[in-house]
Amino acid sequence: MDFSDLSQQRYSARAYKPDPIEDEKLQRVLEAARLAPTAANRQPFQLIVIHAAGRQDELKRLYHREWFLQAPLIIGICTLPAAAWVRRDGKNYADVDATIAMDHLILAATDLGLGTCWVAAFDPAAAREVLQLPDGVEPVAFTPLGYPKDQLRPKERKPLAELVRYEHW
Ligand SMILES: Cc1cc2nc3c(=O)[nH]c(=O)nc-3n(C[C@H](O)[C@H](O)[C@H](O)COP(=O)(O)O)c2cc1C
């Protein structure tokens, strides 16, 4: 898929088939995240690959939606803020770095015919407990990773005129 098709085709899948994901495809999406740029190349993130099978009761504590638990895998991304680049005014870029890495993963998944959905509305305390995250590791987002059972919907987006301001040269 070329990039414009890829950005059109990616959507938030909220229904998944239980079919397993080929290990080669999993490795390719993880590799796409690994190649993402990060501020000062600090790479202050960790990905967690979670097998959902048999863990539904625990995992629904993170995010209680049926579709969240339908895919065979859930991928979580965490930051390590202490390892991230910090701008002179104190702004820590860990969340930005993790977001770029997750978006690489999500676009690579789309390219391979896999569905994803960003999930930020999870319970962070439950995530810490269920995934046994140590101090200093902050969960940022999750996505199911699986073959989608639903379909691309028309995108609702603001017009470019509302999103872009052209500076006068
Ligand atoms: C940072 C972020 C967090 C999101 N969190 C959630 C979420 O917790 N639950 C959910 O159902 N969708 C979530 N979404 C998906 C958005 O609702 C979705 O991307 C948006 O409505 C556009 O639809 P599309 O992804 O199908 O193009 C999130 C998206 C982003 C980028």
Give structural attributes.
alpha+beta, 3-stranded antiparallel beta sheet, single chain, 169 residues, binds flavin mononucleotide
Q: Please state how the strands of the largest beta sheet are arranged side by side.
A: 1-2-3
What shape does the CA trace take? globular
Residue windows where pLDDT falls under 50 for at least 5 positions: none
Q: State the distance separating the first and last CA atoms.
A: 36 Å
How much beta, percentage-wise?
A: 5-15%
Largest sheet: 3 strands, antiparallel
Bound molecules: flavin mononucleotide
Task: Note down, in words, how this protein is organized.
With 169 residues, the protein is an alpha+beta fold. Helix content is 31%, strand content 13%. The protein contains six helices and three strands. The chain has helices at 3-9, 23-34, 56-59, 94-111, 124-130, 160-163, and strands spanning 45-51, 73-79, 138-145. The chain has a three-stranded antiparallel β-sheet with strand order 1-2-3, sandwiched between helices. Helix 2 runs antiparallel to helix 4 (94-111). The chain starts with a helix and ends in a 6-residue tail after the last helix. 28% of the residues are buried. The mean pLDDT is 97.
Write the layout of secondary structure elements.
Blueprint: H1 3-9, H2 23-34, E1 45-51, H3 56-59, E2 73-79, H4 94-111, H5 124-130, E3 138-145, H6 160-163
Antiparallel strand pairs: 1-2, 2-3
Quick structural overview:
With 169 residues, the protein is an alpha+beta fold. It is built from six helices and three strands; from the N terminus they run H-H-E-H-E-H-H-E-H. Helix 2 packs antiparallel against helix 4 (94-111).
